[in-house]
User: Which sequence fits this backbone?
């Protein structure tokens, strides 16, 4: 809530810090705790789906940008084999991204039934 | 010269109708087999829901084994099972009635909406008539305060013009800005220019760059955009796959954006499926219902729909406009933010494209337009929007006409707009130079600042922008470098504001449903600013300040303004009062009576002639016909008939002319009733010098008893009332104030 992904407190994410070259990519992106807090806010406002999205988002903070792009690409129709998608599912589980892994698990079953794998 | 006849039309009336703008639009009869049907089709499934062991085993007539990928995702995540049994047991008509019942809270409708299947949701909204939809929209939107989104693009992808136009859009009140590019490679440069330019006029506007999904994500990851919208959903599996995605890939994408703190909404809208020939015979509304349920299932906070690009196909069919609004309603029924379409020019007819927006305009929405073309139409790289930059004053007047918050405000002074455009363009120019990406000189800035559109700006080598964009991608340039560059080039305010946007992405408050930032950086969302409409006297209402902003369009004038304009002094001519006017016995005399403020407070008529010129012509006309003109001021009345009659009664011939300062003129005779006359020119703005001359001539001819010269108000299609009534009322008030009841008329002398 009060710090970036890097752990840097928000009050230290400043123009001066940018000018001094102190800010890296992880200083300007959101922390998983913040996303989980926002998920709780959504849940208490009776929006379980938005809450689930934000919890998946919290998990995905652990992934690098390239990983996000790679996994998104693999989930597009006809891109990945079932085996490749299974690997991705396991990769996500291994990174603690349990709800994201569950999403991929569902996709595997749906794509198999509907012929959407490569 | 009559109406031009088009080929094959004997009837001039038919030929004229054929030439009407609306007849350039395309119209089709319904053919539901081809999906050319808006609200309901025989192929739409009957609503149904069967749940076993906490899982959906049948959805809208389809068993689980036959679910396509959309059914499966909706079955798993898009039905609130806690509410489903109750919701599906209600008759659609019951739910429709609840939607227009001011005593049923929004939250209750959302709970039910989330428990409905797609077919059930479509059935419910299809039962509402347009006026009922307006009431339902008023209650059902998520955020109480309405807002608006703008397109900001140009044909050259010129970054300085992007920045200037982004600043302009924010100056007019837009809170979300969307750009796109005719040349894909230019996108990072547009995004950067928008990010900076959007912060020049005020703080807090959100910016997006609408391009291919993974490239757009990359821009977001780098912090060069602050929200994404064109994450598209489709209503059939075939079209989804043609769009190179599945519900699962889109769900992952949505979470990916959120993992970098970026606000996101998805996009759907009728017509995509039929345009791609894969509507499966279903109605547009039903297919859109699938998209809306999917949006909620994915966990998106909002949806851009209202036909969007499909508005032209919906608009070609019966109930097309109703269907678009019904789409927005379905989104609201699921508790999601609505970015409500109106972003594609759906008609050549100004009447029709305005009618399209009126229901949602009157009701309000989270975003009334998902792309008001804030730039001029030819620069809109999405294609012209339903309203474009040159329509802004119309829109501001519509807000004022109805007392409705359409999200926008007047930019009072031209200098103000120029200054903010210059700030924005200069900041972008300096940053691009500082980062070694591109160089533009001061002359270019001035061209951009004063431009109406990109045609007013010299076309440079396209490689300049391509190169700058490539540099942004390769280095990479992220929001951190942008902030530093702004500070280092002396644009501290923009640096602080861009950093403030970074903070929003770190805090995540604006990820909640229907979030927008006001200019003080407060997050207004369904959580912090919920729509609590429950009938008259409740819900959103204009604050005093906002009311004044809406009412205070720059064209409105006070009576003092009018006095200044119509009271501008006449050089070299004055009217001096002599003594009280007495009846005369000179048989060739025509008395010309003028109104109380004639040549005093008011020196100019509505036609643009000076009062002296009008008078001079009348007197010259009298003299040409060998009669004697006599001038007097009538002080006790402002009515032109009474003025003329008063003059006629004092006139030796019994013929008088009445002349008001605003220009209305008539010829009277002493024995006629006050409201009668011999001749009347009532449309003051259209009276010419020649016509005043003829008034004088005809007055004299009445004295002599000889035939008159012809005198008629000319043909006009001008809206005389709309144009002049405001000024007329003002001038009449000034006359009334100068009127002295009971004061006798006085003779006047012209002094030069």
Assistant:
């Amino acid at each position: 809530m009060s710090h970036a992904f890097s752990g840097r407190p928000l009050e230290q994410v400043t123009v001066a810090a940018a000018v001094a070259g102190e800010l890296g990519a992880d200083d300007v992106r959101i922390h998983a705790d913040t996303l989980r807090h926002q998920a709780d806010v959504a849940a208490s406002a009776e929006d379980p789906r938005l809450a689930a999205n934000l919890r998946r988002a919290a998990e995905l903070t652990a992934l690098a940008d390239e990983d996000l792009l790679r996994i998104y690409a693999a989930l597009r129709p006809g891109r990945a084999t079932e085996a490749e998608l299974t690997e991705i599912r396991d990769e996500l589980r291994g990174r603690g991204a349990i709800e994201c892994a569950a999403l991929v698990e569902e996709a595997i079953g749906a794509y198999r039934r509907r012929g959407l794998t490569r | 010269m009559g109406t031009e006849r088009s080929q094959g039309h004997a009837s001039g009336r038919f030929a004229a109708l054929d030439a009407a703008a609306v007849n350039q639009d395309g119209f089709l009869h319904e053919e539901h087999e081809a999906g050319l049907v808006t609200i309901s089709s025989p192929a739409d499934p009957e609503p149904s829901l069967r749940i076993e062991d906490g899982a959906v085993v049948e959805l809208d007539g389809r068993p689980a084994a036959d679910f396509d990928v959309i059914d499966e995702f909706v079955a798993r995540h898009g039905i609130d099972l806690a509410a489903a049994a109750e919701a599906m047991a209600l008759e659609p008509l019951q739910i429709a009635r609840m939607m227009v019942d001011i005593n049923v809270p929004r939250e209750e409708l959302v709970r039910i909406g989330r428990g409905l299947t797609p077919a059930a949701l479509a059935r419910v909204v299809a039962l509402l008539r347009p006026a009922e939809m307006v009431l339902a929209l008023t209650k059902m939107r998520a955020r109480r305060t309405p807002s608006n989104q703008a397109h900001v693009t140009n044909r050259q992808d010129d970054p300085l013009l992007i920045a200037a136009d982004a600043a302009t859009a924010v100056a007019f009140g837009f809170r979300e800005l969307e750009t796109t590019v005719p040349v894909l490679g230019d996108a990072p440069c547009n995004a950067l220019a928008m990010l900076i330019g959007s912060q020049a006029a005020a703080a807090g506007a959100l910016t997006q760059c609408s391009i291919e999904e993974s490239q757009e994500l990359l821009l977001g990851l780098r912090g060069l955009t602050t929200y994404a919208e064109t994450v598209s959903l489709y209503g059939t599996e075939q079209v989804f796959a043609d769009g190179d995605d599945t519900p699962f890939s889109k769900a992952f994408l949505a979470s990916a954006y959120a993992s970098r703190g970026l606000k996101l909404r998805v996009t759907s809208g009728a017509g995509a499926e039929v345009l791609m020939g894969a509507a499966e015979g279903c109605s547009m509304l039903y297919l859109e219902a699938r998209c809306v349920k999917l949006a909620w299932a994915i966990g998106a906070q909002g949806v851009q729909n209202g036909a969007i690009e499909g508005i032209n196909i919906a608009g070609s069919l019966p109930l097309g406009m109703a269907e678009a609004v019904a789409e927005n309603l379905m989104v609201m029924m699921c508790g999601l933010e609505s970015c409500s379409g109106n972003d594609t020019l759906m008609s050549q007819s100004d009447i029709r494209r305005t009618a399209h927006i009126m229901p949602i305009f009157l009701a309000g929405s989270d975003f009334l337009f998902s792309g008001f073309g804030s730039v001029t139409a030819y620069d809109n790289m999405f294609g012209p929007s339903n309203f474009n930059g040159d329509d802004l004053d119309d829109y501001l007047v519509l807000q004022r006409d109805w007392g409705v918050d359409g999200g926008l405000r007047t930019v009072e002074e031209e200098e103000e707009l120029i200054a903010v455009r210059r700030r924005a363009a200069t900041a972008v120019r300096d940053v691009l130079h500082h980062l070694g990406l591109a160089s533009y000189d001061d002359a270019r800035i001035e061209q951009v600042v004063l431009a109406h559109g990109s045609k007013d700006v010299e076309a440079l080598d396209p490689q300049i922008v391509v190169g700058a964009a490539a540099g942004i991608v390769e280095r990479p340039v992220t929001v951190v470098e942008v902030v530093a560059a702004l500070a280092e080039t002396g644009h501290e305010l923009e640096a602080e504001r861009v950093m403030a946007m970074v903070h929003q992405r770190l805090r995540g408050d604006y990820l909640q449903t229907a979030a927008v930032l006001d200019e003080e950086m407060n997050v207004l969302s369904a959580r912090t600013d919920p729509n609590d409409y429950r009938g008259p006297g409740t819900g959103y209402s204009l604050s005093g300040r906002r009311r004044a902003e809406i009412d205070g369009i720059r064209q409105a004038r006070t009576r003092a303004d009018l006095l200044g304009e119509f009271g501008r002094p006449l050089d070299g001519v004055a009217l001096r009062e002599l003594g009280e006017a007495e009846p005369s016995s000179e048989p060739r005399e025509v008395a010309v009576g003028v109104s109380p403020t004639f040549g005093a407070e008011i020196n100019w008529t509505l036609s643009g002639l000076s009062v002296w010129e009008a008078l001079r012509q009348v007197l010259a006309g009298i003299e040409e016909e060998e009669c004697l003109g006599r001038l007097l001021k009538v002080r006790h009345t402002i009515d032109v008939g009474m003025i003329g009659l008063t003059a006629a009664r004092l006139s030796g011939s019994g013929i008088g002319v009445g002349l008001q300062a605003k220009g209305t003129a008539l010829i009277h005779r002493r024995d006629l009733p006050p409201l009668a006359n011999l001749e009347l020119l009532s449309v003051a703005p259209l009276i010419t010098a020649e016509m005043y001359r003829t008034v004088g001539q005809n007055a004299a001819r009445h004295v002599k008893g000889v035939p008159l010269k012809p005198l008629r108000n000319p043909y006009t299609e001008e809206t005389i009332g709309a144009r002049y009534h405001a000024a007329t009322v003002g001038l009449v008030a000034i006359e009334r104030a100068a009127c002295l009841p009971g004061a006798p008329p006085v003779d006047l002398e012209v002094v030069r």
Remarks:
- The first strand of chain B starts at residue 49 and ends at 52.
- Residues 414-434 of chain B form the longest helix (21 residues).
